Amino acid sequence: MPKYDLSPPAGTRDFFAEDMKLRESVLHTVRDVFERFGFLPLETPAFERVDIMMGKYGEEEKLIFKILKRGEKQSGGEADLALRYDFTIPLARVVARYPEKIGRLFRRYQIGPVWRADRPAKGRFREFYQCDVDIVGSRSVNAEAEVILVLTEALSAAGVHNFTVRLNSRKVLGALLEMHDIPTELHTSVTTAIDKLDKIGVVGVSAELLQRGVPASKRDGLLQDLEAHVADPGHIRKRLVSLPSGEAALRDIDQVTGIVQPLMKHGKLVFDPFVARGLSYYTGIIFEIAAEGIGSSIASGGRYDDLVGMFSSNEVPACGGSLGIERILMLLQNTEAARERQNVPQVLVTIWDENLRSDAFRFATHLRDHGVSTEIYVGEGKLSQQIGYASKKGIPYCAVIGPDEHAKSQVAIKDLRSQIQVLATWDEALQTLKRTAKTPLP
Amino acid sequence: MPKYDLSPPAGTRDFFAEDMKLRESVLHTVRDVFERFGFLPLETPAFERVDIMMGKYGEEEKLIFKILKRGEKQSGGEADLALRYDFTIPLARVVARYPEKIGRLFRRYQIGPVWRADRPAKGRFREFYQCDVDIVGSRSVNAEAEVILVLTEALSAAGVHNFTVRLNSRKVLGALLEMHDIPTELHTSVTTAIDKLDKIGVVGVSAELLQRGVPASKRDGLLQDLEAHVADPGHIRKRLVSLPSGEAALRDIDQVTGIVQPLMKHGKLVFDPFVARGLSYYTGIIFEIAAEGIGSSIASGGRYDDLVGMFSSNEVPACGGSLGIERILMLLQNTEAARERQNVPQVLVTIWDENLRSDAFRFATHLRDHGVSTEIYVGEGKLSQQIGYASKKGIPYCAVIGPDEHAKSQVAIKDLRSQIQVLATWDEALQTLKRTAKTPLP
């Protein structure tokens, strides 16, 4: 036999039932909240035509997984397809492809894996889930408010309660840079540097600005504002309110805050004028949600009025957001709620011998028909091995129908935790197993 | 703007909410049944290392989607990964990789997309879902019985009631070919020819056998049996029962039938000695489930004792089965049940103006908190446009809070089907909307 590397490919994972229980439950909760907010599902293929994907991700383009042509064309080594990198490009394609289904206003969610050939690290995978909501067709800040509300509600419902929504607008940053007379063509680059204020401090940002070609004279004014902001979080607001463009930007922020803040069940919302978001495609409100105990953000989004229309002939305003579900799962991994979720069948029905086998299958069917998750032992072990199997797997109850039970139309139910065994009719046993789903036999 | 082909890649699909509702509901039902039977989820990556996949699929290998190496290695045109083609190879890898988690007996299900670069056709896609159950580690026919039971129960629960399980064993075919003295090395090839009896008849099979190198003398005996079987379905059983190998094969069939038949809620089960299954890896019981109104089978499976162990150093007996979920969905598409499933929010909360906006968001939150799926209108249209939007989308109710309703702490609920409008307190409105989830306002 050839030697195989049997581990999953770098950056991907095999999920067993015990890994899946929290994962599935959180994804289920998120989906429920999205639908409760009137977002509808959209599912696009795992891969797109390669030209749809190229030229959209800047430097990150090299992280796209490309798929070789098949058949005779394979030998050329060319790719015609690429695994999706996010859900935004597929959304843009769908918006342009099906105008009659999209209408003037369209809201959808998409939950599923995306693939990026990033360097694998703790919390960074090559295959990971994204949970996106987007609203296409509205320029109103009501759309941003709705997006932030649905994401914070999803966090609340999933059990993440200590978080901070850091709200900003690209227009705030624009007004600030305008005030300091920084040339428009440097705005994106400068924004990227300012985004790092949290991590590298004023001194670090200063060095980056120089490196990115901001003249020293202009840089110093900007740095003064940064320093003043660190000392007084209200500083930037006071500076901006005197500028028309600054005042308009602040009005957006205040409207979103006015809608969202009173309705958030957990967490808090703050205006943070230096949240910049790495991606260059945002055009208005931007936000990041940070959680205690985790370095990077657990959700983010904003308005990107030029992005979703990239394949359309007309302009398409849009805003949306995304939950960093892999990080959220890391946060929840060690909580009480995670441990409580059951991931094994409720009962193992043992098979006494070939003569009593049909009793066992019939009793298993009886339980299953009434919603009790039931495994029937299909291996070749003796009764003691069957019970040992259940015990090892963590199944709480065993059912045994031996000749005595068969003669009396009964079944023995053994609680593997307390070792208590009771004899019961099939219906009594069903009632007991339904009732004691989570508690040991009395 | 470059010209893009905006349709999904050949053989793949975009699913909107109206396409997803039946799909998700059926997948959910199937998953529920699998778990009720004590199968636990396993999720493996979308792609595997390319060497894990090569040399396992015979002629079909050319249908595998391969992924180009990244970065500098990309220019070589080589592939290091491949999209999964089924769930069996990933299962085999997992069984070999994690012996301590697998133990002596392991049962799992896996539901998700697989990818095959097949020629797209009606009902044949390049991206499609598979739903597999497998039991690893048992040689007992109880395992096959359990697999057939869980699949038939899943069909029943999904609403497919007219089906036939056609049961056979590779050993039946083996005994038959042995009886006719057909050389062992021809068995697989002959089996493939016999598998087509349904489609090409005795004459067609006869031609195929000759083509596949079966000597004319031996072929005639076999054809006599085929003809006799067409006239009398009990013929083959009578012939086999006299052979020791035939008798053993029939005993397997009879045991599985004895367990499964009395517990099937719908459909029927028959012994069909000429079901052969295309795949060469089966070693014992094989089955196909056929449904009225569809040409190809909607489920299939069997025992494949040598397959799952392909990466392991020891032998691993296993059996399993798969639901052809795309075909099942085609069967169900036009049923009453499919039409009844709701795929839009229950209510659209309109926004009167900026002053009353927070009322609208608060009322929407009130409904959502009590489980009513609620969309809030976030576009920029007037009230009539908002109601028109709801109506076009098929949302049954609109909620309006204008100045009058605001003054009285009320809300107007409009039934868009009957055009009846009622005024109510927020709590009354909530109760009404919960109650009338499916019926119009009185």
Question: How is the secondary structure organized here?
Answer:
The structure is a homodimer of 442-residue chains.
Chain A: H1 17-36, E1 40-41, E2 47-49, H2 50-53, E3 66-68, E4 79-83, H3 88-97, H4 99-102, E5 106-115, E6 127-136, H5 141-158, E7 163-169, H6 170-179, H7 187-194, H8 197-211, H9 216-231, H10 235-240, H11 244-260, E8 268-271, E9 285-291, E10 299-303, E11 318-323, H12 325-332, H13 336-340, E12 347-349, H14 357-369, E13 374-376, H15 383-393, E14 397-400, H16 403-407, E15 410-415, E16 421-425, H17 426-435
Parallel strand pairs in A: 1-5, 7-8, 12-13, 12-14
Antiparallel strand pairs in A: 2-4, 3-4, 5-6, 6-11, 7-9, 9-10, 10-11, 14-15, 15-16
Account of the 3D structure:
2 copies of one chain form a homodimer. The first copy, chain A, has 442 residues and is α+β, with helices and mostly antiparallel strands. Chain A has 2 domains: 17-338, Bira Bifunctional Protein, Domain 2 (BirA Bifunctional Protein, domain 2); 344-435, Rossmann fold (3-Layer(aba) Sandwich). Chain A is 41% helix and 19% strand. Chain A contains 17 helices and 16 strands. Chain A has helices spanning 17-36, 50-53, 88-97, 99-102, 141-158, 170-179, 187-194, 197-211, 216-231, 235-240, 244-260, 325-332, 336-340, 357-369, 383-393, 403-407, 426-435; strands at residues 40-41, 47-49, 66-68, 79-83, 106-115, 127-136, 163-169, 268-271, 285-291, 299-303, 318-323, 347-349, 374-376, 397-400, 410-415, 421-425. In chain A, the strands form 3 sheets. Chain A has an 8-stranded mixed beta sheet. In chain A, strand 15 (410-415) and strand 16 (421-425) form a beta hairpin. The model of chain A is unreliable at 438-442 (pLDDT under 50). At the A-B interface, helix 1, strand 1, strand 2, strand 3 and strand 4 of A face helix 1, strand 1, strand 2, strand 3 and strand 4 of B.
